[in-house]
Amino acid sequence: MEGTIRVRFAPSPTGFLHIGGLRTALYNYLFARHHQGGKFILRIEDTDQKRYVEGAEEDVVESLLWCGIEIDEGPGKPGAFGPYRQSERKDLYKEHAQQLIESGHAYYAFDSPEELDQMRERLQKSGNPSPKYDAITRQSMKNSLTLPRDEVEDLLQMGADYVVRLKVPRRENIRFEDEIRGHVSFEAKGLDDQVLLKSDGMPTYHLANVVDDHLMKITHVIRGEEWLSSTPKHILLYRYFGWEPPKMAHLPLIMSPSGGKLSKRKAEEEGIPVNTRAYIEQKFEPEALVNFLAFLGWSPGDDSEIHSLEDLCKLFTLDRVSKGGAVFNYKKLLWYNEHYLREKPDRDLAARAKRIAESRGLSGIDDDYLIQIIPLMKERVSKIEEFITFGKFFFEDPEEYDEKALKKWKENSPDLVKAYRDKIADWEADQFKADRLKSALQEVIDEKEVGFGKLMMPLRIAVTGLGFGPDLFPALELLGKETVLRRIDRALQELG
RNA sequence: GCCGCGUUCGUCUAGGGGUUUAGGACGCCGCCCUUUCACGGCGGUAGCACGGGUUCGAAUCCCGUACGCGGUACCA
Predict the structure, then answer these.
(1) Biggest distance spanned by C-alpha atoms of chain A
(2) Dihedrals φ, ψ of A143, to 5°?
(3) Cα gap A22→A18, rounded to integer Å
(4) Is the CB of A213 within 7 Å of strand B?
(5) Is A287:A340 a contact under the CB 8 Å cutoff?
(6) In strand B, which positions have an atom below 7 A from any protein CB?
(7) In the predicted structure, residue A196 carries a pLDDT above the cut 60
(8) Which residues 423 to 482 of A reach strand B, CB within 7 A?
(9) CA-CA distance, A371 to A354, in Å (whole number)?
(10) What is the Cα–Cα distance from A4 to A35, expressed in whole angstroms?
């Protein structure tokens, strides 16, 4: 098995890449890279023309790339098993469906959607809560099993709409081994005669998936748990084609804090973006998202928490994937983000912060100035944009003063701040240094016989508009005398 | 409803019959550091869903129940 591992991530291009999909992709990638020579394949399952969204495929590719997940084979990354878009493999599915019909494991069905509805309605009325097109009901439907042979021929000849359905055995216990869950078994009677080929000539997921996984020599199918209950159908298909099924691994779902699948509406109401795109746009550190997602349903088995993508590749095994759903913990993601942010060189952070600043209309920021801000702010930000938001005062005079901070602006504040202003007002520019600025403050509080904070906080508010932030004196130094005096004067005027 | 899969601190998880007074992380709380806010350090809070078995011994194995989640489409 070693050296021949092939896994795939097979999203449907119906919108932005869902964060759960990203985790599935990640686990597949980690599994592939864990094994020497393992291959990670991207396959686009664009068989539903109605739900197709332009640009979705690009979004998937870009999102994976952003995370550092490299695709070995896929659209735009030629391999020996392409094409990698199902819409370009249509004939293949048709041939295979044909093959099943010939071997008696599938059949044509000519029932219209209305007729299907009627059948379901009828069955429901007579007390069957989940009507199925199955071994029993197919006997009273319009298909190549019930219609005379020539009528079937005629219908096909005439170009009548038809689908191809899987002929599920009436009774059988279908078992398979799941790499994560162990033995799983389903009764065939609970399955319906799955449509394999739709009337538009496109395959359904079930057919396409099985055919492609086999043809692409996929060794392990690692996918979300929502597929578990259709796996018996797939097992049947493998058998009818005479193929060895790949190993199956069904991943626990990512849940919303309030319970249930992390759906767009629900999650976003709870402040959790579901599209990978949103994390990219919010400038999360990709290492953080990757690390966080890897641990959502998996753990290395020791107490370690911080792992690079490369580390994760070494550590990842399917037997350490958990079985239960995992609730998305946004605060932990932020924690990871803070961690990776602090690990990064100031130079890189500065360059990125600059771009963010510019995109928000703060232009003309001096690089030398900006890079000195980074170490002052680094331990205080959760996301890179906060260099710009919480650190806005480094670039612009405060327009207003934070309400909470103002509680520290006391009766005697103007007097103290004024005294400080007077002390530093006639300094030369090269005297305007953090340590001198600090001792000047010390002098004032000694003279006035008040505590350090009695001056420091009002001064901070005057200059930054905020009641918290980086060490004040290096910040004052950076801002420069002119700016500091201007802000003090303004605050004195505004706040009295 | 039916079928399937799950269930260890609020959350992510370790632990898979005795090593456990159930470990770590996030969060939360407190203390220290710091005359801001953070970072960091230290400490604390909090959990084996329930009921039966099996066993000398069960968080760990078995069976039920409850609860949660998924599926039940010519969607993936």
Answers:
(1) 109
(2) -150, 175
(3) 6
(4) no
(5) yes
(6) 1-8, 10-15, 23-27, 35-39, 68-76
(7) yes
(8) 442, 445, 451-453, 456-457, 460, 467-472
(9) 10
(10) 8
Q: What is the pLDDT of residues A18-51, one digit of tens each?
A: 999 999 999 999 999 999 999 999 999 999 999 9
CB A319 within 7 Å, strand B: no
CB atoms within 10 A of CB A125: 9
Sign of torsion, CA A413 A414 A416 A417?
positive
d(CA A486, CA A212): 69
**Measured CA to C1', what is the nucleotide nearest A326?**
B12
- Residue spans of alpha helices (H) in A346-408: 346-359, 367-377, 386-389
Residues 360-419 of chain A in contact with strand B via CB under 7 angstroms: 379-380
Q: Three-class SS of residue A117?
A: helix
> d(Cα A221, Cα A248) in Å, to the nearest integer?
5
A344 tagged catalytic: no
In whole angstroms, what is the distance from residue A167 CA to residue A104 CA? 8
Hey, what long-range contacts does A302-306 have (CB within 8 A, 24 or more apart)? A306/A336, A306/A339
What is the DSSP code (8-state) at residue A244? P
Q: Which two tokens stand for residue A156?
A: 């096909």
Nearest CA to A270 out of A256, A260, A280 is that of A256
Phi-psi region of A353 (alpha: psi -120 to 50; beta: other; left: phi over 0): alpha
Contact A252, A323 (CB under 8 A): yes
Q: In what order do the strands lie in the sheet with A195-197?
A: A106-109, A163-166, A195-197
Encoded amino acid at A258, one letter:
S
Predicted ipTM? 0.96
How far apart, in whole angstroms, are the C-alpha atoms of residue A254 and residue A257?
A: 10
How far is the C-alpha of A368 from the C-alpha of A366, rounded, in Å?
6
Give residue-wise pLDDT tens across range A100-125.
999 999 999 999 999 999 999 998 88
